[in-house]
Design goal:
single chain; Lipocalin; eleven-stranded mixed beta barrel; 11 strands
Length: about 240
């Protein structure tokens, strides 16, 4: 029985961290996201990641979004990974013109430090976003965006499920590269995950997004999201 006491803090975090974020989501739109990531390690240090999914389908949102994001990672060191990919987003709006977005990105990921059995990660990403309106008057918009994500992940704990359960989360800041430059969005993300088999992993996430329109404005919660993520690794 004593060996299970060390799992209590993680169970508390799994149960209560999403609830704490939910307390700040008053007035925010609720959305559902679901996606599957396919992973294939095709050479030493090299890995293909491709995720595809839908947003807003199961919630009363004013849009529906389909997307596909292929990417490739190269692990330079155990603690350092280079990441690059491209996003294809097709958004269907209820009361506005639909849009199609293409966006290449480049990213760097560092894992440091390890606190106990928890791994702390830092992810820097730069995106080039090209968006077209696909109905009505043809319109094109090009923006540059930077992102920084501070993340954590626990080890797998052998409780509740055969292959264990883990907790992961992150805080991510977004900033459009324009004058003046300021952080205009913050995303909080937390939730449990399980390794269902050697190939499959499942995560259930709660996300809270806050935005502001100017550097002097205050952040307000505008979206909170329940996200189901599936991962499949090709052997």
């Amino acid at each position: 029985m004593r060996q299970y006491w060390k799992y209590i803090p993680n169970l508390i975090a799994i149960l209560f961290l999403p609830a704490l974020l939910l307390q700040t989501a008053h007035g925010a739109d609720f959305q559902t996201w679901s996606d599957i990531t396919t992973i294939y390690r095709f050479a030493k240090g090299w890995r293909y990641d491709g995720d595809q999914g839908v947003r807003g389908i199961l919630s009363d949102s004013d849009f529906k979004l389909l997307y596909f994001r292929p990417s490739v990672r190269y692990r330079v060191k155990p603690w350092f990974t280079v990441h690059g990919g491209i996003r294809f987003f097709k958004t269907f709006f209820d009361d506005e013109d639909d849009t199609f977005e293409i966006g290449p990105w480049q990213g760097l990921r560092f894992v440091w430090p390890e606190i106990g059995n928890y791994a702390i990660s830092h992810y820097f990403r730069f995106e080039e976003r090209m968006t077209w309106q696909t109905e009505g008057e043809s319109d094109f918009d090009f923006t540059l965006r930077s992102r920084y994500q501070l993340g954590f992940r626990s080890p797998n704990y052998d409780i509740l499920f055969k292959n264990g359960i883990y907790l992961s989360g992150s805080i991510e800041a977004f900033s459009d590269i324009e004058t003046p430059i300021f952080i205009n969005r913050i995303r909080y993300d937390v939730g449990p995950g399980i390794k269902a088999s050697a190939a499959w992993r499942v995560e259930l996430r709660y996300l809270l997004q806050q935005e502001k329109q100017s550097a002097s404005a205050a952040f307000t919660a505008n979206e909170h999201i329940l996200r189901l993520r599936l991962f499949y690794t090709f052997e």
